[in-house]
Amino acid sequence: MKVKVQKLDGKASGDIELNDTVFGVEPRADILHRVVTWQLENRRGTARAARERSDVARTGKKWGKQKGGGTARHGDRAAPIFIGGGKAHGPRRRDFNISLNKKIRALGLKMALSSKAKDSLLVVDSLELSDAKTKALAATFSAAGLNGKVLFIDGDTVEDSFRMAANNLGNVNVMPAAGANVYDILKHDTLVLTRAAVEKLEARFNG
After folding, report:
1. Which residue intervals make up region (Disordered) (predicted)?
2. In angstroms, what CA-CA distances link 132 with 5, 135, 176?
């Protein structure tokens, strides 16, 4: 698959040949759903459990007489009615770290990239700008027709000045190729890859 490469200011910068095994896979809704669900579930923190009656470190000895004390009958100090006792019907620990086959994860990322390659993928030379300021960056994006939610993926690292200026715009996210994932790719309207990002992603699957 051959696509045109341009600079961020909209000027043409030649062509690039995309690997069809990465950018030409037919998307499947069930695979994408499984990968997105796995990714979002693993982002959730473990639900903490409360210490119940059997979990608190208190004596189990009957601390008062059964009769004659003038108070209610109690068996031990771990009862929920006492300060320091166990929680009655508290939350239980829940772990959301579900597993997913690595081949399915890789296939889902290929399908996400392929779905964007059909109609909303833009390849640029690099993310370097001479004036990486928020105002200048907004004008550059507007001239290039980059509207809506935009995801920029660069090679190994992203220049801090560009990343901070892009984050100030509110609708732009920037990440290195190593952080590319299905959820972030699908939730953005436009995907922008640098030449370095294309090489990294293709090497990730074919290396």
Report:
1. 49-84
2. 21, 9, 17
Tell me the CB-side half-sphere exposure of residue 75, using CA atoms within 13 A. Answer: 5
- Angle at the Cα of 4 from the Cα atoms of 144 and 157, rounded to 5 degrees: 70
Q: In this structure, what token pair is assigned to residue 195?
A: 């030449």
DSSP one-letter code for 111: H
How confident is the model over 135-157, as pLDDT tens digits?
888 887 777 777 788 898 888 88
Residue 125 has pLDDT above 90, yes or no: no
Beta carbons within 10 angstroms of residue 169's beta carbon:
15
Q: What is the mean pLDDT of residues 100-120?
A: 92
Residue 90's φ and ψ, nearest 5 degrees, are -75, 175
Q: With 0-12 CB in 10 A as exposed, 13-18 as middle and 19+ as buried, what is 105?
A: middle
Q: Report the 10 Å Cβ neighbour count for 33.
A: 12
Enumerate domains of the chain plus CATH numbers.
2-45+97-206 (3.40.1370.10), 48-94 (no CATH)
Q: What is the pLDDT of residue 113?
A: 93
127: its two tokens: 């993310």
Q: How far apart are CA 113 and CA 22, in angstroms?
A: 7
pLDDT at 161: 79
